[in-house]
Amino acid sequence: MNETIPAAGAVPDWADAPEGEGWNWLAQDADGRWFWYRTEPRLNWPGGVWRSNSRNQQFAGAGAPDAHWDASVRLRPGCVPPGPVPG
Question: Which domain of life does the UniProt lineage start with (predicted)?
Fold first, then answer.
């Protein structure tokens, strides 16, 4: 994994995501910090953060705060999100 920090306003590169299976989400908190997620993060609007179990998130870099942080969640290109289990 490359430990580079993205430039202000830049989105971290998927090539820098943690090694291992499942790190398929990326999102930015209100303060500008980006995090990788192994499970789909949940929006915590009052806290200004995306939430997931701490074992399932990893710091990705510091960016500039963005008023539209709540729309920043991204799914890894080519990844099919998990869907409902067929019954």
Answer: Bacteria
